[in-house]
Amino acid sequence: MKPVSRRTLDWIYSVLLLSIVLLSWGYVIYASTVAARRQLSKEFPDRNLGDE
Question: Keywords on this record (predicted)?
Fold first, then answer.
């Protein structure tokens, strides 16, 4: 196996870090949406939030 250049390694690490950041932000947004829907359904049990 031939050695990998420093520039290629930097690019791979950058892409890996960017994907980790995007996945974590996606999880944060999803979890906050779920929590907000749960809170709204507790406050307004007679409203169906999926119809809007």
Answer: Membrane, Transmembrane, Transmembrane helix
